[in-house]
Amino acid sequence: MLKCLRVLPAPVTRSCYRCGSSYVARMRFINHLKEDPGACLKALDSDVEGILNRLGEGGSLVKEESVLITCTEQNRALFCLDVGQLDQGALEEACGAAFVDLRKAFFILRGEEAPLVARGQALLRWHQGNGFCSASGQPTTRNQAGSQRVCQSNGLIYYPKMSPVIITLVSDGRRCLLARQTSFPRGMYSALAGFCDMGETLEETLRREVAEEVGLEVDSVLYSGSQHWPFPQSSFMVACHATVGPDNAQLEVDHAELEDARWFTLEEIRAALKVRTPPRELRDQPPTVWVPPAYAIAHRLIGEWAEDQERRGEGR
Ligand SMILES: NC(=O)c1ccc[n+]([C@@H]2O[C@H](COP(=O)([O-])OP(=O)(O)OC[C@H]3O[C@@H](n4cnc5c(N)ncnc54)[C@H](O)[C@@H]3O)[C@@H](O)[C@H]2O)c1
Ligand SMILES: [Mg+2]
């Protein structure tokens, strides 16, 4: 029987004593920028002026393709620029920066930076893939903020899309279950994940994916959190803990989907969480097990499980 949903924490309301801004004011400011192209353009000019000067002639093209991603606590709008068409070497020199693959960047970025980069990249990619209306075949046009596209011939509005995915860390009370696909980097294991089918509830997806991938029937589910994940085309990850009874923990792994799936002890999980970046190892050495970077919600699930086991251990 599936049961139990953690009560969601109340949204954090922060105030800034210098500018008097608050969470509510910020959210309304962002909404205003989405709806008022003139205000959005003004905010864009003031946010990106410095960097556009450094981009030279390519600057105006880049400005047109920019997307609004959020605003700071001081109500300063932040935009993501698509610089894909510019000379990357020249750009790195002009900005004193270096391009990094997005997956690798998640090992480097800290705090609030990673979701902003993920959001900006996902939004730019969504625009690149939605230039035409799927009903009329005519080009679509975007609004200034980049929060929607419209087909002028039939009025259809397109909004950025995320695919719901359930990610679940299964525990048998003493151990937790991690798996890897052949496409994962060497040694990396993660929690089980799967896309929702049309019409499914999240609980149904969770039960189905665990059954399909490792042949287990879960007893209980506890919601943990959610995140936007930019791969492969923007997923909306919903993360849960699930349990199976110790007598129902025999795995039957679907090797068409997973290269490996196995139970890990607390000791093994502690060691895996300590590996901060993918280890450099020789191919003939057995791989060190490591887990997705801190930003990935899989990491959070695994960390929560370890903390819970430690608390239970202290209580025994
Ligand atoms: N953020 C994290 O911590 C984290 C951790 C693990 C996995 N993930 C993400 O979860 C996603 C789903 O995991 P999975 O690959 O095990 O899923 P999965 O088990 O559902 O298998 C993937 C297959 O599902 C099919 N599919 C059905 N709907 C799809 C859709 N909307 N988009 C793409 N494919 C669809 C495709 O055939 C695809 O090959 C992955 O893309 C991965 O990036 C995120
Ligand atoms: Mg899967």
TrEMBL record:
<dbReference type="InterPro" id="IPR015797">
    <property type="entry name" value="NUDIX_hydrolase-like_dom_sf"/>
</dbReference>
<keyword id="KW-0520">NAD</keyword>
<keyword id="KW-0378">Hydrolase</keyword>
<dbReference type="InterPro" id="IPR015376">
    <property type="entry name" value="Znr_NADH_PPase"/>
</dbReference>
<protein>
    <recommendedName>
        <fullName>NAD(+) diphosphatase</fullName>
        <ecNumber>3.6.1.22</ecNumber>
    </recommendedName>
</protein>
<keyword id="KW-0460">Magnesium</keyword>
<dbReference type="Pfam" id="PF09296">
    <property type="entry name" value="NUDIX-like"/>
</dbReference>
<dbReference type="Pfam" id="PF09297">
    <property type="entry name" value="Zn_ribbon_NUD"/>
</dbReference>
<dbReference type="Pfam" id="PF00293">
    <property type="entry name" value="NUDIX"/>
</dbReference>
<dbReference type="InterPro" id="IPR000086">
    <property type="entry name" value="NUDIX_hydrolase_dom"/>
</dbReference>
<feature type="domain" description="Nudix hydrolase">
    <location>
        <begin position="160"/>
        <end position="287"/>
    </location>
</feature>
<dbReference type="InterPro" id="IPR049734">
    <property type="entry name" value="NudC-like_C"/>
</dbReference>
<dbReference type="GO" id="GO:0046872">
    <property type="term" value="F:metal ion binding"/>
</dbReference>
<dbReference type="InterPro" id="IPR015375">
    <property type="entry name" value="NADH_PPase-like_N"/>
</dbReference>
<dbReference type="GO" id="GO:0016787">
    <property type="term" value="F:hydrolase activity"/>
</dbReference>
<dbReference type="InterPro" id="IPR020084">
    <property type="entry name" value="NUDIX_hydrolase_CS"/>
</dbReference>
<keyword id="KW-0479">Metal-binding</keyword>
